[in-house]
Design goal:
Elements: H1 5-15, H2 22-33, H3 38-47, H4 52-61, E1 73-78, H5 81-86, H6 88-99, E2 112-117, E3 129-131, E4 134-136, H7 141-157
Parallel strand pairs: 1-2
Antiparallel strand pairs: 1-3, 3-4
């Protein structure tokens, strides 16, 4: 995949080139591309005091970073204790069926990524699904699948 390296250059120019700025640079790159492309790591290393191994090490150490493309919307299914007891596995299965993908995959059109997560901190609403900053609680299989229907309707209305 070809990425616009001028965006990477602009991020480095804005954030800085010092090795102690590795995390902020990677955060900005991920915000721009929704993941951190290998080409971006190579460009950052070529134009800063950061090495490829340092950049890659930080990007793989912290869970916030992604090295593979993700969909426009990430659908997170909480699998923490309260959500697990409340039926999180069934929610994931329902969303897999509705989206036609497995947990951890992207839809072919790159609209959605389905992701099981450890905890989103909304135990009183268990089981929970998050899409972006929106939290959907007290779900069952049918309601979980309906979230995708709602997202699709909102896109059609735009």
């Amino acid at each position: 995949m070809n990425i616009d390296l001028t965006q990477v250059d602009a991020i480095v120019a804005r954030v800085g080139t010092d090795a102690n700025l590795t995390i902020p640079v990677l955060q900005e790159v991920q915000e721009a591309f929704r993941y951190i492309p290998l080409e971006a790591i190579e460009r950052i290393a070529a134009t800063t005091d950061m090495t490829e191994s340092q950049l890659y090490g930080v990007a793989t150490f912290y869970a916030q970073f992604r090295l593979a493309p993700v969909g426009e919307q990430i659908i997170k299914v909480c699998h923490g204790t309260a959500c697990h007891v409340g039926g999180a596995e069934g929610l994931t299965e329902s969303l897999e069926t509705r989206l036609g993908i497995r947990n951890g995959e992207n839809t072919p059109d790159m609209k959605y990524t389905l992701e099981a997560v450890a905890c989103v901190g909304c135990c009183s609403l268990a089981p929970v699904v998050m899409v972006g900053e929106r939290t959907f609680g007290s779900l069952d299989r049918r309601k979980a699948a309906a979230i995708v229907d709602e997202l699709e309707e909102r896109k059609d209305a735009k």
